Amino acid sequence: xxxxxxxxxxxxxxxxxxxxxxxxxxxxxxxxxxxxxxxxxxxxxxxxxxxxxxxxxxxxxxxxxxxxxxxxxxxxxxxxxxxxxxxxxxxxxxxxxxxxxxxxxxxxxxxxxxxxxxxxxxxxxxxxxxxxxxxxxxxxxxxxxxxxxxxxxxxxxxxxxxxxxxxxxxxxxxxxxxxxxxxxxxxxxxxxxxxxxxxxxxxxxxxxxxxxxxxxxxxx
Length: 220
Known about the structure:
By secondary structure, the protein is of the alpha+beta class. The protein has eight helices and nine strands. The strands form two sheets. It has a five-stranded antiparallel beta sheet. Helix 1 (9-22) runs parallel beside helix 2 and helix 1 (9-22) crosses helix 5. The mean pLDDT is 92.
């Protein structure tokens, strides 16, 4: 933005969604991945837009795009790595489209990117996303995969000081607490577990991430 602060893909999508809502452009669905910011879920809730989380990978958005296109509805797909598209465009990620939309919004509203960002953070919340990785012995991969598939809320609740609300095993293991969420996914090519966390406070995000690893949540 104008202060050289980075804009996340989810914040950019929130700016686009907020603008389309303000001009009464109907948005039927926004789909994102388990590893994406909760600001997307929050704007969907406040704007009465259908919200879906998928496994990590842009290809998982295609069925939502296809369904929306067939029914002449409008769907947006975004992932935290930057993938973005809409149902009446390509079903693959497009780097040009969100920037073109952003430029149109800036020109139409005669405002700055800093102002747009400040507005959506005020309306939909500030979220702090962090990520790390955990190296493990290749021999233990099956044990880790089994743990991710079979662990329960009761088990993971012992690792966190905050209340565990739910767990999601669609892609790895996502644990949602009353202050945020943390996700563990295994790399498909390396003996690496990727850990993502997000809360409304950077200190709490880092704490969730550290606890997931330090408290032996992941088998060695």
